[in-house]
Specification:
The structure is a homodimer of 387-residue chains.
Chain A (H helix, E strand, L loop, with lengths): L7 H4 L5 H14 L5 E3 L10 H13 L11 H15 L8 E4 L1 H13 L5 E6 L3 H9 L3 E6 L10 H7 L4 E7 L11 H13 L3 E5 L22 E5 L12 E4 L5 H11 L5 H7 L5 H28 L12 E5 L7 H12 L1 E5 L11 E5 L4 H15 L1
Parallel strand pairs in A: 1-10, 3-4, 3-5, 5-6, 6-7
Antiparallel strand pairs in A: 2-8, 7-8, 9-11, 10-11
């Protein structure tokens, strides 16, 4: 028998380096060490009670068959209403696909748009799964290095400068993981126009858009009905484990997306969809807004104290729950630095190299997905070591 | 602006023709007509109460964060135990990935194994999503026409006869959708050996394996620890809308599958995973076995009466909940025939062309996913028209 051989598309998916950090953190915890987790990209809040209650009622009613591939009509209507109430933007519910997590939405959008020879332009640093989705469907990634001077985001100038005839999709994430920075409305609008003029498509990841702490930012849907917008019930709505997201797409794409969703997923989880309807109730939104205020408090605390310690935060992130901090004052190898900090202080942090290659060795991503007392304790420990 | 253009991989996905039947059936129902649905590939039974109760308890406890990408360890252990109790086969829980539906498992397995230049050999007729998964990842499909003489299944002889140097995966479905036929153990074993000898991999869809009404058939895992086996909580366990399935893979594949699952899905739905643990409790299995007995009664009734009406069933299907009936005595165009039967008798049936091209125009798939009285009524109506 020949040696097993896995396909190149899977061999090319780099493991998340944070998994090594996490595994070591679990080992240390098992050995009795206290570990503060600033590496976890999942909010620590439980799913809001109104959503859980709606889920329980749905299970009690017991009709848990497949939904249509595009999602429950009632949930699609709620999402459309959310765009109206939150952004004042009219989005036809028929343009919304409910997906198994934002992952499903990204897979649908990229699968729909990009041929194997096409390039998907995205920012480095960025969410690593994006380039892996592209690789999975045999499409190409064009990673554009971005720095603090553009708030770690693509700009119209950068898009134009790096354009090639093979670019079919430009992918923005606003706010971005890992940087938390937001793309200004004018830039989204300009990049959307640029894409339209060149026969390419703009896909905007707005997974963290509900978690923007200051400034008024529009959804990309306000600027064009030709953009693809990905969103999620995981982050703002704190339904992580339920695995539910959505995609808003142009009219002309819906028949094809329906067919693709039918084949790839059949549909998103019915209990999750039924529960998610309650996410838009005023009491639930009020709870989510109070949690968002708490996240802002954490951000302010952590940002201030990391800068005091000597970490660089040239751009104050407006959203998400991450700080992408420059640690070049301490190290030229942020992965080794993260390992050292874990061993010596018990603080777990994600190394920059999980988000790309551009200057990755001088950055760390701190996630403030843990309580303020834990953040205080982390700062205390880091100060002991670095202060 | 240029005209919108979707990628070839999506353009090549044929719509399900049954959707036209279903849409028309809904129209007729809206207009007051009574329709009997024999086109639906989803069991009519509700999710068993023990599973719903476990789901409610999980929601009440409220810990609904992401699970590991490979699934909840407790659920993976239950699935391993199920192979021991049901088949007497030892499967290490470490070889099990819990997936968002069997769809997720098929996407993982094919994505892991097949390069774009590789061929995936499968039977025509067969489950249409399989060739669409292959197309999605830019791999090739080698559809082998199969007939009643091989119970509509691939055989070692057929596999050998159609082999090309590009075959990297052979995909069996046992029982098959749409034919309900089962691959004999000896054939599974021989095809597994054949694949191993030629550096290819056998993937076996056992989604309907819990619904085999007679005969003793082993899981493919009994024959080799190198096969990939896909299964589902949708059919035997009747958790359709929850979207939960699993993949059993060889040891060497697990690290890569973990990485791929992390990137494609993050994880399967946590409430679904917590609920599914109860699926293996003796009271739940007892309920499922009584429902299986009811499905057998339906199969026997429908098969007998369809043959009396003049439909051909040269192979009595041992499993699933489908009869793939030859209607060439009535028509040379089963799609038009299905449309006519819907209009004139109110019985909705899936046309053969949804399952491939080989003799598709002379077959219909009848799903016995509705009650015995409904089946009696369908037979009565068909007899009025055809008898």
């Amino acid at each position: 028998m020949t040696m097993p051989r896995i396909a190149h598309r899977v061999r090319d998916i780099a493991p998340f380096h944070v998994m090594a950090i996490l595994a070591r953190a679990r080992e240390l915890e098992a050995a009795g060490r206290s570990i503060i987790h600033l590496e976890i990209g999942e909010p620590d809040f439980p799913t809001p009670q109104p959503i859980i209650d709606a889920g329980i009622q749905a299970l009690q009613r017991g009709d848990l068959h497949y939904t249509p591939a595009l999602g429950l009509p009632a949930l699609r209507a709620c999402i459309a209403d959310y765009y109206a109430s939150q952004y004042g933007v009219t989005v036809d519910a028929q343009r919304i696909v409910v997906t198994p997590g934002a992952s499903g939405a990204l897979l649908l959008a990229l699968g729909l748009l990009a041929e194997p020879s096409d390039q998907i332009m995205l920012a480095d640093p960025g969410y690593p799964c994006n380039r892996h989705f592209a690789r999975f469907i045999e499409a190409q990634t064009l990673a554009v290095p971005v720095d603090a001077d553009s708030a770690y985001q693509l700009t119209p100038t950068l898009v134009e400068h790096h354009w090639t005839p093979d670019v079919k999709v430009v992918l923005l994430a606003s706010p971005s993981n890992p940087t938390g920075s937001v793309v200004p409305d004018a830039d989204v609008r300009a990049i959307a126009s640029l894409c339209a003029a060149r026969g390419a498509y703009l896909v905007v990841d707005e997974i963290y858009h509900g978690l923007i702490y200051e400034g008024n930012y529009q959804t990309a849907l306000a600027h064009s009905d030709q953009v693809f917008v990905v969103n999620s019930f995981s982050k703002y709505f704190q339904m992580t484990g339920w695995r539910l997201g959505w995609l808003v797409a142009p009219d002309w794409a819906m028949t094809a997306l329906d067919r693709l969703a039918q084949n790839l997923f059949l549909a998103a989880s019915t209990p999750a969809q039924l529960a998610a309807i309650a996410a838009f109730e005023p009491t639930c939104i009020a709870l989510l807004e109070s949690r968002k205020a708490e996240l802002k408090t954490r951000r302010d605390y952590l940002a201030t104290h990391l800068m005091e310690l000597g970490f660089g935060l040239p751009v104050m992130p407006q959203g998400a729950f991450y700080l992408y901090a420059d640690c070049s004052r301490f190290t030229q190898d942020s992965f080794e630095f993260a390992r050292m900090l874990l061993e010596e202080t018990g603080v777990a942090i994600t190394p920059g190299r999980d988000f790309g290659t551009h200057k990755a060795n001088q950055y760390l991503r701190f996630a403030y997905t843990t309580s303020l007392p834990n953040l205080e304790s982390a700062i205390y420990r880091l100060k002991q070591k670095l202060g």
